[in-house]
Amino acid sequence: MQPRPNARLSSQAMAFVLAGGRGSRLKELTDRRAKPAVYFGGKTRIIDFALSNALNSGIRKMAIATQYKAHSLIRHMQRGWGFFRAERNEYLDILPASQRVDENKWYLGTADAVAQNIDIVDSYGVKYIVVLAGDHIYKMDYEVMLQQHVDSKADVTIGCLTVPRMEATAFGVMAVDANMRITSFLEKPADPPSIPGDPENALASMGIYIFDWAFLRDLLIRDMADDNSSHDFGNDLIPDIVKNGKAVAHKFADSCVKSGLETEPYWRDVGTIDAFWQANIDLTDFVPKLDIYDQSWPIWTYSEILPPAKFIHDEETRRGMAVSSLVSGDCIVSGSEVRNSLLFTGCRTHSFSTLDYVVALPQVVVNRNAELKNCVIDRGVIIPDGLVVGQDPEMDAKWFRRTDSGIVLITQDMLDVRAKALS
Question: Which of 7, 87, 154, 322 could form a disulfide with 338, with the two C-beta atoms 3.0–4.6 Å apart?
């Protein structure tokens, strides 16, 4: 069936989300879950942002390629994203690495993850494919980027962040001409090229690519047959298109979704403990840089049926209170002080405990007289009575993972080792 001439481009597109990364820089937070499945913002997961952007942009066909430690991610997809209906021409497929092409091959690279599922993409009957990373925090209207892709007649359109030029040394950087055509792609250059007319800034790749599916399909088949390829978009396919085809850069600022409260484009890679902690704590600011309350661009997720948060006890030294904090449903703040912190679903904080700049993942229990500062607490951790974290760097580093900037990650295994050593 041919699309109507006035149909939105997103109705002719699918989103292919790459969600198989190890996320090793998040250390123990990804011991049991893939990075896209890590919790963020009180009730969502990181992958919800890419999927919500696609859904809000009008894309109703999606596929999620998974590989490492995928169970919690797959379970979240089943519970939170199961509302797609095939009879409405909507699809969401989960595509684990399952050796469909070769019994000795898992996904070898980002391009190979798409290549091994060519038949599935074919079955969607789409004209465009939007390739997304599943592990970044941002709000973006992909329809705007699709329109640029079509108008410019590009072979590939690449989403790019505008970053200060000398900060771009940690990124893949695009050199572009005055028409935003990419003339070279440089991986972590020592002297990044600037944007024409903007000498202070450079364009860094976001890992977002739009292709015509027919073009990409042929490219993937050729790449699969190349034994010298690493089968990766950034390493192989994109440089080849820049050299031999037409690659165009798309500025994130042109399609970033902002409410009245957001003053600049917001994009974060929360791939380290420090970055994860900071991005969550930023949400507690009086006017946060990311507005998660914007109902015109909701972040969809698995919404559990939960009671409201509760605050109990009102004595001078035993008052259940939270200031400059986000407290999710099913939390009980009992006679304790929570400041500048984010409590995920189902947390319990008990009398005489204090939490300051704490990110507590779901079902954390903080027992009496604990004093916690500048820390991330993994899901289901039970903080023992009187535990003090964030005051003695040497003691923090002895039992827990402490970053160079002083953020402490606490897991139940770490606490169990500590309890055993002190018993």
Answer: 322
**Is the confidence at residue 68, as pLDDT, over 90?**
no
Q: How confident is the model at residue 101 (pLDDT cuts 50, 70, 90)?
A: low
Contact between residue 18 and residue 115 where contact means Cβ atoms under 8 Å apart: no
Distance from C-alpha of 375 to C-alpha of 43, rounded to nearest angstrom: 18
Binding-site annotation, residues for alpha-D-glucose 1-phosphate: 107, 172, 187-188, 205
Q: 208 with 133: CB under 8 angstroms?
A: yes
> Across residues 49-78, what is the average pLDDT?
94
Report which of 256, 262, 322 is spatially closest to residue 287, judged by C-alpha positions: 262
> Binning pLDDT at 50, 70 and 90, where does residue 5 land?
low
Q: How far apart are CA 194 and CA 289, in angstroms?
A: 26
pTM: 0.94
Task: Yes or no: say if 389 and 400 are a contact pair by the CB < 8 Å rule.
Answer: yes
- Residue 313 makes CB contacts below 8 A (sequence gap 6+) with 319, 320, 334, 335, 351
